[in-house]
Every structure is written in structure tokens, then in C-alpha cells.
Description:
The protein contains 5 helices and 3 strands. It has 137 residues and is α+β, with helices and mostly antiparallel strands. 43% of the residues lie in helices and 16% in strands. It has helices spanning 15-33, 73-82, 84-94, 110-121, 124-130, and strands spanning 47-54, 60-67, 102-107. The chain has a 3-stranded mixed beta sheet. It is flat.
Amino acid sequence: xxxxxxxxxxxxxxxxxxxxxxxxxxxxxxxxxxxxxxxxxxxxxxxxxxxxxxxxxxxxxxxxxxxxxxxxxxxxxxxxxxxxxxxxxxxxxxxxxxxxxxxxxxxxxxxxxxxxxxxxxxxxxxxxxxxxxxxxx
Length: 137
């Protein structure tokens, strides 16, 4: 009987990809929160892991991170990349998968995008368009 594969939905992947991504996200967030990564560039940084996107074969995890306050993002990403092998091993111990996924770190820029939209909404031009019409005659 042939297997029919559904294409990934616009929401970021199949249910399995989303579920595994969330499990990997929790594992990485716990590892980083407990300070298990001993790197001087990570000390003093609180790092949030808002999202992990898994490839369809679950062998690649793209981890979106953001240091608290959005400062030193390049330094934090470099430190996480230096410790990628350790983090992959820790994830493998905590998440029950056939293969430990390769980890790729990216800066989560959704906060910047939300701030840009918020600023745009506060501009006088947009405020004028959003204001109720006062000339209802």
C-alpha cells in the first residue's frame, strides 16, 4: 500500500516536527537555565529559546535564541556554536530520538520585527488613518 506524504503546513512543519521541536526546545532551555554549559561568554547571560524548527527528517534542529535584553547576540551565538557538540550530546540524553539532531543556532529576530511594526503603528500617518472620522456630516 503506497504511503502518501502530506506537505508541511504553513505553520512550520508536520505535527511530528512541531512536537519534536518543542521537546528539543524544552531540553535546551533547561540545559541553558541550569548553567550546564561552562563558557565565559555565556556567563551572566540569560538566554531564551523561543523556538526550535526541525527538518522533515528530524536530523537538523534550527534553534532560535535571544539573550535577555537582546545584547551581545553575536557573542552568545558564537559561544553556543563553540559548545554545539556538548549541547547535542545533552539533547541526545534527554530526548528519545533515533538520531541526535545536528544543532544550528540563529538569533530570534521576531522581537525586533514586532517592535518595528509597533513603531510603524504609532506614526502620525497611521494614527490619522486609525482615528474615527470626525466629519460625519
